[in-house]
Predict the structure.
Amino acid sequence: MNAPKLFIVIPCYNEEEALPITAARLTELTDDMIGKGLISDKSRIVLVDDGSKDKTWQVITALHEKDVRFRGVKLAHNAGHMKALWAGMTLSDGECDCLISIDADLQDDVNAMYGMIAAYKDGADVVAGVRSSRKTDSAFKRMTAQGFYKLMKKMGVEMVYDHADYRLLSARALSALLSFGEVNMFLRGMVPMLGFNTATVEYERGVRVAGESKYPLKKMVAFAVDGITSLSVKPIRMITTVGIIAALVGVGLGIEALVKVIGGQDAGQIAQSMSVWFLGGCQLTALGVVGEYIGKIYLETKRRPKFILDTYLKED
Ligand code: UDP
Ligand code: MG
């Protein structure tokens, strides 16, 4: 195999402080990889400015002028981490043999890229960077992150544990991922849907090299809600379950009332609460059924690919 053309895509939002350090580190790393013949010298680093309000774009422009290895993409407004990454991936599609996405803050160890490239050469189409520990994260971040993975799993979303958006995609995995038509995308949940040969590479997660987190609690909650609602219709099903349970409670109360009436006792009050439970339950169930159809429409509107091709054996 020839040395693969690697594109590294980095979403940047207000990263003027971190970018120069990150760029220097990546220049060093790619120099070393090219020197060792691990990647092609046509490899590129794609910096996506996600509508930053600081001097991020000036930093990117300067990097590009100094070294053609750096490409700059400027989005017209702040589209968000995922969409900025998507933009970088879309623009790289067809030009690279493999692509690695990584954050601008170097919290993810860039040396793990050696392992990713090795796994790619061994035939992996997706290589997920997985944190071996979260020592440097605050206790709060650790707890919320753990709760998030558990919740996602309960909601039926398949995800690699402790894997953020630090991953390698082969050219065909990239094209397959980009064929997903959804606007609300949650990459961590979508990549496992590709089903290609997946490997993992472990690394220690560090602290930000500079600047502060662009994910305050508010964005984290929005991210979690996005993750669940964009991949799962389970919340809708939960309505149906609650409805059926309530209706059953109603039926139980009805039976109790009946027994009392037969026994010659007054069952007026029970009969009343019975109707509340039963009708309420029926309404919730009906809502759930309607929701089930809406869920179908929702998935339909995403226009996802119906299949993803792995190999096609045919004549010539
Ligand atoms: N980011 C982005 N757009 C946003 C928010 C964040 O492109 O609206 C980028 C940010 O520049 C960084 C990555 O997404 O490269 C992850 O953000 P951050 O490191 O702040 O998140 P944390 O590691 O704290 O979860
Ligand atoms: Mg970070």
